[in-house]
Amino acid sequence: MADVKWIKLATNIFDNRKIRQIETLPDGTAVIVVWLKLLCLAGSINDSGMVYFTKEIPYTEQMMAAQFNMPLSTVQLAIRTFEQFGMIETEDNILHIANWEKYQSADRLSEIREYNRLAQQKSRAKRKALLPVNDKSMTSQCCHDTDIEEDKEKEEERDKIDYKGITALYNSICVSFPAVKTLSDQRKKAIRARFKSYTIDDFKTLFEKAEASDFLKGNNNTNWSATFDWLIKDANMAKVLDGNYDNKQRKIGANGIALTSEKSDLDGVF
């Protein structure tokens, strides 16, 4: 896999309320350094924000202290703080950076996947070129095997969906909506179904439109607001992307009175 050489950090990171709270802690500055080193480590591992030594060996606090060249007590305080503030999650003893999409753009990850695909394609072409020209049976068999391998990779690529990446993208953009904390089989099924018609960019646009929509955030007669599960339903996703829930631009008449208004009820929402 192509290496990730950078992570995204907002210039106002130190205005973040969680970072400000951490700064007030004993060794707060050192804890923030641990956070930055943890982000860099997750970027170097390049696996959707997961942090591990190998997939079979998770990082222990002692290993992190050695990796970061920092006191064990500081690393332990940092990990407890990050868990308390919801900045990291742990699954099967593997640490995962919450909202990883904030630090690594989806566009860049797509570029990396495309780079890997092209690299594999070149490698297959090189192996094919090294075969003896006069060995037709071997060449034919190799071409057949290559075709099967390519078809298999295409199927795997279609099935390889970054479910955590989608929910992390939602959590980072749709801050006015309930956060997604678990990935049920039903949610994975819905995401997989939408990927038959939509791309990661469409999901990003969906979440941005939802976050910008006053109506979907509860500014309606019943205070109803959308959820992740509602947004990724086929019909709902299409309507949001079509702009059905964009904020209406009020037209002002000559007398200064609004001529149009926002949606007044939930007709057609479900």
- Radius of gyration in whole Å, from Cα? 24 Å
Top CATH class of the largest domain: Mainly Alpha
What would CATH call the architecture of the largest domain? Orthogonal Bundle
Distance between the termini: 42 Å
Structure description:
By secondary structure, the protein is mostly helical. It contains eleven helices and three strands; from the N terminus they run H-H-E-H-H-E-E-H-H-H-H-H-H-H. It has helices at residues 17-23, 28-45, 61-68, 72-84, 106-129, 136-159, 163-173, 185-194, 200-212, 228-231, 234-241, and strands at 50-51, 88-91, 94-97. Strands 1-3-2 form a three-stranded antiparallel β-sheet, covered by helices on one side. Strand 2 and strand 3 (94-97) form a beta hairpin. Helix 7 runs parallel beside helix 9 (200-212). It starts with 16 loop residues before the first helix and ends in a 29-residue tail after the last helix. Mean pLDDT is 79; it is low at 255-265.
